[in-house]
Amino acid sequence: MKYADIPILMYHEIGYQNSPWCVSPTQFEQQMLFLKQQGYRTITLAELKKGVGQQQETNEKSVVLTFDDGRSGVYRQAYPLLKKLGFTATIYIVPHWTDGKDVPEEETYSGFLSWSELQELAGDGFEIGSHSLRHLDLTALDEKTVIQELAAADELITSHLGKTVRHFAYPHGKSNETVQSLVQQRYETAVTIEKGFSRQPGAYARQWILNEITLDTFGKLLQRPRLSVCLIVKNEELFLESCLASVQGVADEIIIVDTGSTDGTKKIARKFTDRIYDFAWCDDFAAARNESLKYARGDWVLLLDADEMINQDDRHFLLEAVNQWDVAGYRLLTRNYSNDSSISGWVPVLPRDRDSDTFNRSFSGWYPSLKVRLFQRKPEFIFTGKVHELVDGALEQAGGRIRSLPVPVHHYGARKGNSQEKVRYHLELQKQKIQDDPHNAKAYYELGVQYLHLGQLAAAEKALTESVRLDPVPQSPLLNLAIVRQKQGNYDQAITTYQQVLAKNRQSADACFGLGFCYFRKEELEKAADFFHQAITHNPLMVDAYINLGAVYERLEKYTEAAEMLRTAAQLSPRQPRVYYNMGVIQEKLMNLPLAIGCYEQAIKLHYVRREELQDKVVRMKRFVQEMETEEKEPLGSI
């Protein structure tokens, strides 16, 4: 066992109080006897730090026991058993609480150790660490006050116990760069409430031991979970290296299933793993995914595609999540990067993120999708669906708990583009999926969206109508049905459908935007303005709503309001050509022709959709401006 894999267990109180932090004496005894029977010994945090720092390994099973807050049950209930078993622990105390001062009401569910009890524990080999003087959020204090909190706590502990304070636990588990730096200057180790086995200097993670924990789960918390990253690939040499590099340091193994690459994909994969397997393609994405699971040996699986990346700054969330054994899987948000702001749910890359192009890769925005990406490896957790394959259903069918994890997956599929052949192929797979399960409402929804992207609107409407008939509850099929009807010019029918979406979700920005567009087409400009305003209220980042509202105001000859909306759109998404085209229209109507020309040229530079037509217009406008300037310079003729 590596020292880095030795668990630190975090307890608070041992007793029968009604608090999740209270482990009953019976449970605690079972857990300690389990450790003893399994051959575990307790070690100090100083020993752990030395082993981690020197990257040592040990043949002995080891564990570190810690108790936060210095509660009375540690002496009365835990101490006699620990002493009998030859175990020791580190106890983090809040000196003011020990003295009965400044104890918040929510912390009074049990009492605290006395100084005499702490003296006895310290004399018997237990380490007494600091939990700060008053258990305040140190990140909310200035540097001078933090130093005072740490120094005062140490002084009290040393004066009562006669020992130097060597270990620290962050109050509320909160720290930042400044606090960690101050803590590391004073103490040998510091622990957080982050779950898992992270051993960052000054921030050791721990395993939470709460009440009602089963002995089976307790046993699992003693082992660092192993993570398998699984991919299926074919001709991914442009993306694969970035993808695999992004999971280094979090993946215990990488499984690559290749479905027939003819480029350098396998050569790149071998830089990261020797677990590369060939799979004969059988027109079934789920089958290929399940093939990758067959080779996985980890406790958990993280699913990625070759054109995706994980920010390494987010890996601590993954490492913490896999210690939650009561969770079957986690949904992760995929950021699908695209410059198409008309896509439902599209979010602009915000100004603060534009300076760093690490993940947005020059895209002006992205749209979200959510699905299970991280899940426990179990035989029953398999993928279904020839296309748009998911493992979510298997987890739900097994009654597994699914949670969301704040780790975005950065997806760059838009860089590949989609050939007509590929699009038609996926369409056929989707049709086959429906033939296999003709009552699958989601399959009809997916088919409808594919037809929509292909511009086959009648087919899209038929598929989406069937999806809504089979399952009228979900909002997305109904919203897309409204969009299809809008694109067909059936504005009254689209308005009715958008209103049905709003009946399900009054805050649907997409539905309000659609209603605004329909009323704009029907020349009901005041209604259009009202719904575009509602869309912005529900989603202040909806760039197209600002652009369209600007167009409405321009039609209403409210040029000041129109310009304001367009300026906001430009701030949110400065690479949207329609923003500059519409600005040009306003300036042209105000006869500010040089400004109008500048706006039009910026729209052309950003590949405005009617670029050639606009270029011709700019040429004519420049010629007109030049002629006007020439006339003004010519002297008046004599009579």
Radius of gyration: 32 Å
The figure for the number of domains is 3
Structural class: alpha/beta
By CATH, the architecture of the largest domain is named Alpha-Beta Barrel
- Percentage of residues assigned to helices: 40-55%
Please count the beta strands (DSSP E, at least 2 residues each).
Answer: 20
Low-confidence stretches: none
Instruction: Find the CATH superfamily of the largest domain.
Output: Glycoside hydrolase/deacetylase
Shape: globular
CATH topology label of the largest domain: TIM Barrel
Outline the biggest β-sheet. 9 strands, mixed
Protein traits:
single chain; about 650 residues; alpha/beta; TIM Barrel; Spore Coat Polysaccharide Biosynthesis Protein SpsA, Chain A; Serine Threonine Protein Phosphatase 5, Tetratricopeptide repeat; nine-stranded mixed beta sheet; 26 helices; 20 strands; about 45% helix
